[in-house]
Amino acid sequence: MYKIDLENISFGYEEENLIIPVIKDVHLSIKEGEFVSIIGPSGCGKSTLLSLLAGLNFPSYGKILLDNKEVTGTGNERGVVFQHYSLFPWMSARKNIIFGLQQLDKNRNQKDIEKIADEYLDLVGLKEVSHKYPSQLSGGMQQRVAIARAFAMDSDILLMDEPFSAVDAKNRMALQELLLDLWNNGKKKKTVVFVTHDVDEAVLLSDRIIVMSANSKSIKEEINVDFSRPRNRSILSKNNTYTELRHMLVQLLFDDLINGTESEVWEAS
Ligand SMILES: Nc1ncnc2c1ncn2[C@@H]1O[C@H](COP(=O)(O)OP(=O)(O)OP(=O)(O)O)[C@@H](O)[C@H]1O
User: Fold this and answer.
1) Hey, which of 44, 51, 211 would you mutate to test ligand 1's pocket, going by the most ligand atoms within 8 Å of its Cβ?
2) pLDDT average, residue stretch 185-209
3) What is the dihedral sign for C-alpha 52, 55, 56, 62?
4) Residue 213 CB less than 6 A away from ligand 1
């Protein structure tokens, strides 16, 4: 299991010898097995932060540590689920999961791999359509395959970038329940970093919500979500504390929108 430490990280994208800052001075520790959501207005750097955690980009300043070891690239202990399913279109649902497992360990027994793939396809309710290709599956089904693959690959850390935003409301609720089931009932509890725009989704899923600001390009607020688990969305929605928390989060997002953004650049070295 891994804890994650972001030590005062800043990051900017380079454009014509200048660096346009996207993230500034983010300092954050995430405990092993914690479910943390990151919310914030569009463009505040949520996806960029996730790409730094995934090791796809590197901080311009500061460090990211996994169990006190600096991140220097991608790694098998971190699985990623994106908004747009990221399945291989030329492989069946089952083959997508099998392929993921084969990439993790090329020497692993094929029968074991197939058993794990079938187990997870069953868990996400796709056993009957496991032979179908992504284009033959609905968006919700494709995202189930992506989640099944991520859990089958059994990384300790799961980085999820708006994984349910492309599916309709009913499927979104079903996928949220599925994710919570897999997270709660797995052999080991994964550390999840989950990017979302949806305040209700963040409250339902998270132990802690990190609110980012497009204005400061940093963390604006960290909020613990203390509701006991398992959580029931219809009971939660009638709870006064839930209503207050939701209102506070919406207000934080709204304040950021009306405060505008600073413009600043760094010299590229
Ligand atoms: N590859 C890139 N090159 C240059 N700028 C980029 C790149 N990717 C993102 N940006 C810029 O960085 C900023 C943060 O983008 P990012 O996608 O991380 O925000 P976000 O909070 O995830 O937004 P959204 O909620 O809309 O997905 C934006 O201003 C965006 O235009």
Assistant:
1) 44
2) 93
3) positive
4) no
Q: Which domains does the chain have, with CATH numbers?
A: 1-77+195-269 (3.40.50.300)
Cβ of 30 below 6 Å from ligand 1: no
Question: What value of ipTM does the predicted structure carry?
Answer: 0.97
Secondary-structure percent of the chain, ordered helix, strand, coil, rounded to 5? 40, 25, 35
pLDDT tens column, 42-61: 899 999 999 999 999 999 99
Nearest CA to 261 out of 212, 223, 205, 224 is that of 212
46 lines ligand 1 (CB under 6 A): yes
pLDDT digits (tens, 9 = 90+) for 218-259: 999 999 999 999 999 999 999 999 999 999 999 999 887 766
Separation between Cα atoms, residue 71 and residue 205, nearest integer Å: 26
Q: How far is the CA of 20 from the centre of ligand 1 (A)?
A: 11
Residue 261 has a pLDDT of 56
- How many beta carbons lie within 10 A of that of residue 67, not counting itself? 12
Q: How far apart are CA 29 and CA 49, in angstroms?
A: 13
Question: For the chain, how many residues are written?
Answer: 269
What gap in Å lies between CA 137 and CA 141, rounded to an integer?
Answer: 6
Angle at 147 between CA 36 and CA 183, to 5 degrees: 45
Cβ contact 148:127 at 8 Å: no
Q: Contact at 8 Å (CB) between 71 and 9?
A: no
Summarised one tens digit per residue, pLDDT across range 157-168 is 999 999 888 888
The atom number, within ligand 1, closest to the CA of 195 reads 22
Residue 106 pLDDT exceeds 90: no
